[in-house]
Amino acid sequence: HKILDNDNNQVITLANYTTEIKATHASGCKEYHEDYDNLTVWYRCTHYRKFHSYRERWWFIALDNCNSTKGLKLRYKITMTNNVNDGWLRHFSADEFCERFLLPKN
């Protein structure tokens, strides 16, 4: 029994795109080498995901390299926003928005 499902886009494989790995295309990963070191293989992954929800949610993100005994070396940036069309609410979570703008302070 698997906890996460590739068919439901719950697993995003961070590697170059191949037709054998279904979820890899969604990662936007490309292999590259640093200028000073042509021996080390890096992956630069740039892409976006859209999640639609009618209520606030908690999101959990995990990274893993099952084939390594040395762990992972990575740099990352994750930006999660609300409705893209509404500049005012874009970066506020539901609890921040309610606290700052809807509930009166005594």
Automatic annotation (TrEMBL):
Coiled coil: none annotated. Residues 2-76 form the GPR180-like N-terminal domain. It comes from the Eukaryota. This is GPR180-like N-terminal domain-containing protein. It comes from Oppiella nova. The lineage of its organism: Eukaryota, Metazoa, Ecdysozoa, Arthropoda, Chelicerata.
